[in-house]
Amino acid sequence: MCLSASDFGRFATFLGEYLGINSVWDIFRIVFDILIISYVFYLLLTLLRDSRAFQLIKSVILILFVAFLAELLQLSTLSFVLKLVIEVLPVMLIVLFHPELRRILEGLGQTSFMEMFKSGTQKTADLSFMVSEIVKATYAMADEKTGALIIFERKTNLSEVIRTGTIVDSAVTAQFLRQLFIKNTPLHDGAVIIKKNRIAAAACYLPLSANLQLNKDLGTRHRAGIGISENTDCISIIVSEETGYVSVAENGQLKRNVKEDALRSFLIESLAPKTENDKATGKRANIFRRGGKQK
Fold first, then answer.
1. Last residue of a domain, one of 117, 135, 157
2. Cα–Cα distance, 23 to 33 (Å, whole number)
3. What would the mean pLDDT of 230-241 be, rounded to a whole number?
4. Is-contact 126 197, C-beta < 8 A?
5. Residue by residue, what is the 3-state secondary structure of 29-71?
6. For residue range 239-286, what is the model confidence (pLDDT) as tens digits?
7. How far apart are CA 241 and CA 220, in angstroms?
8. Contact of 252 with 226, CB cutoff 8 Å
9. What confidence score (pLDDT) does residue 264 get?
């Protein structure tokens, strides 16, 4: 079936009347309107993609899709139940997304117009310097048997954890990190959060691990480092003030007595943005495979 020029003309006339296009300015207005809405959705997805709220959004989309299929296939019981769920969904979303919505609004208020267009990608040189300073401070504190707990944010947003401590927002230096963990100073008790290659906060409170299989000799600092790694994808570095051992926790696993070179390689490869080759081959330094999992 071929469409004639008159058919295209009628369609263009209908589209123009439907969209209210009477001049060239109206076309620019509509395009500008679409671009603004698209960018707003892009900002929302960018702010939410690194949080657990993004998983809830995917669940909501799944519910809507199943409801559509139930209506299409005339599954009356399932369709009725899902309609009831969808009716209360807006209220549920407000309650569930309350922390994320607050974070978004506060973030928009604290962000300048130009910063909205800047990329959040971290440079490799910045990462290497940060890791070098972290490792230097970690093993200096290990030699002194100064207890320390350092958390690295990755994809899961740790803003709620950061709120429990004191905002620092400082560049990472070995001297400053060691200063934060000196005994009997105001910020020494708690965790330091590293976010985007900077010290975001200190003296933060972390959830303790509920794993009953952990070694009973592990203290609160180790259990906190493991606990936060169970709930998020972060990496925890723990320095024991009793033994001076350096431990690393990831995905609820703990590796104790990690050597300096192994820690440096692990941090650089774990914190660096994954390339397509990395995603395909899965080649990542994994200190947990060397000597097995230690509890």
1. 117
2. 16
3. 92
4. yes
5. HHHHHHHHHHHHHHHHHHHHCCCCHHHHHHHHHHHHHHHHHHH
6. 999 999 999 999 999 999 999 999 999 999 998 876 544 544 455 556
7. 12
8. yes
9. 93
Structural domain count of the chain: 2
* Amino acid letter for position 269: E
Mean pLDDT of the chain: 79
The alpha-helical segments, DSSP class H, found in 49-181 are 53-72, 76-96, 98-110, 124-144, 159-162, 174-180
- Residues 6+ positions from 236 with CB-CB distance below 8 Å: 149, 150, 151, 152, 191, 225, 226, 228, 229, 248, 249, 250
Task: Give the domain-ending residue among 117, 135, 160.
Answer: 117
Q: Look at residue 295 and tell me if it is in a domain.
A: no
Contacts of 280 (CB under 8 A, 6+ apart): none
Looking at the fold, whether 139 and 106 belong to one and the same domain comes out as: no
Position 4 scores a pLDDT of 61
Q: Is residue 2 part of a domain?
A: no
Q: What is the pLDDT of residue 68?
A: 87
Host domain of residue 156: 124-289
Task: Tell me the one-letter amino acid at 114.
Answer: M
Separation in Å, CA 141 to CA 151, 189, 225: 16, 14, 17
Cβ burial, residue 64 (10 Å; 0-12/13-18/19+): middle
Is 182 domain-assigned? yes
What is the pTM assigned to this prediction? 0.62
In a domain, 294, yes or no: no
Residues 109 and 246 in one domain: no
Which residues are paired to 294 by β-bridges? Answer: 254
Question: What's the CA angle centered on 229, arms 227 and 231, to 5 degrees?
Answer: 75
For residues 71 and 101, state if they share a domain. yes
Write the CB contacts of 277 (distance below 8 Å, at least 6 apart in sequence).
Answer: 283
